[in-house]
Design a protein that fits this description.
This protein is α/β, with parallel strands linked by helices. The chain contains five helices and five strands. 50% of the residues lie in helices and 17% in strands. Strands 4-3-2-1-5 form a five-stranded parallel beta sheet, sandwiched between helices. Strand 1, helix 2 and strand 2 form a beta-alpha-beta unit.
Length: 149
C-alpha cells in the first residue's frame, strides 16, 4: 500500500512539474518568436515609364507605411518591361534609389536571351532570375503578396 501511494504521489508531482514547465515555456517562446515580415512581389511586364514609376511609388509607400525593415519587396521584370532595366533607362535613377532602399529588382534571363541582352547592357545593382514568371509563382507559393501595378 505504501509503495502504491508513493508511486501515485511521484507521478502526480511529475505531471505538475511537466505542466508548469509547459506553462512557463509557452509565453517565453511566443515572446522570442520573430514577427512575421510583410513580403510583396511585383510584376512589371510593360515597357512603360509610367508603370515603372507606379511600381516604384508602391515600393516607396510600402516602406514608408510599414517601415523599411518590416517589408521585403521584390520587383520582377520580364517581357517588354525589361527595357526599363537597361543602362539607358529613363527611370534608371529611380530604380537606383529603390535598390539603395533595399528593394530587390530582378530581370528575367529568359527575356534577356530573347532580346539578346547581356548583363553589361543592364543597370548596375539589379539581380537576375532564370524565369520571371517562375519567380513570381514561387514567391506566391511561399506566401508573398502579389501586386501588378
Amino acid at each position: 500500500m505504501r509503495i502504491t501511494q508513493t508511486l501515485r504521489t511521484s507521478t502526480a508531482v511529475a505531471w505538475m512539474v511537466a505542466s508548469l514547465a509547459v506553462a512557463v515555456a509557452a509565453p517565453v517562446a511566443a515572446q522570442s518568436a520573430t514577427p512575421v515580415q510583410n513580403r510583396v512581389v511585383m510584376q512589371v511586364s510593360d515597357n512603360d515609364p509610367a508603370k515603372w514609376n507606379l511600381a516604384l511609388n508602391n515600393a516607396r509607400n510600402l516602406q514608408a507605411d510599414l517601415g523599411a525593415n518590416n517589408v521585403q519587396i521584390e520587383i520582377v521584370a520580364y517581357g517588354p518591361g525589361i527595357s526599363m532595366l537597361k543602362s539607358d533607362s529613363v527611370v534608371g535613377n529611380r530604380i537606383g534609389e529603390a535598390l539603395s532602399s533595399g528593394v530587390r529588382i530582378e530581370a528575367c534571363e529568359n527575356t534577356m536571351r530573347g532580346q539578346k541582352l547581356a548583363k553589361s547592357d543592364m543597370l548596375n545593382g539589379i539581380g537576375y532570375v532564370g524565369a520571371g514568371v517562375v519567380e513570381i509563382m514561387q514567391k506566391q507559393q511561399q506566401g508573398w503578396a502579389y501586386l501588378r501595378p
